[in-house]
Amino acid sequence: MFSLIFHLEEKFFLNNFVAYFYITTYNKNTRSFYKEEMFMRYLNEQEWKLASRFLFLSMALTVIKHDLAKMEQLSPFKINEPYIAILKGIEKNATEERRDLRKEMYREKIQVTMLEKSDSFTSYLFVCKGKEEKRNYFNPAIRKKVKHILEDLLTHALDADHSSQKKVETGKGI
Prior knowledge:
By secondary structure, the protein is α+β, with helices and mostly antiparallel strands. The chain folds into two domains: 2-39; 45-169, no CATH class. It contains three helices and six strands. The protein has helices at residues 45-74, 81-108, 139-170; strands at residues 2-13, 16-27, 32-39, 110-117, 121-128, 131-138. The protein has a three-stranded antiparallel sheet with strand order 1-2-3, with no helix packed on it. Helix 1 runs antiparallel to helix 2. The longest helix is centred in the C-terminal third of the chain and has 32 residues, at 139-170. The relative contact order is 0.12.
């Protein structure tokens, strides 16, 4: 048998007011309490999408830079230049998108900060217009989101390269 206890606690974090909900679950059979911390959601859907896209795009950009450095250093292919050119194009597009996201976040007064990292989870603090929201991400889920962004960037880079190549072949690009 379980019983739930809800209560609201107000704290100051980084000089800003944060409201927390704690759900305390009591199991009468084992006579144990389980306390789960929940934060009030202050970011609306658009603000959260903007901040999370910036966060995961920044991670994807780090991966791209790492891969580019490894490719230039190790030369794993017989002809490396096309692969390096694709990665540099992806890096350029991702950097431009992140710059635009950063400008939009500045206008909306949104900040993202990593709070703590463990083997399984990473916590980020989203600050929007003076209100704070903490979100925990499962590390494999972060990897999946970064992988999805990398796939999108690669698809767009290859589509852009393919369309520019067709223009040259048909004589429209000359």
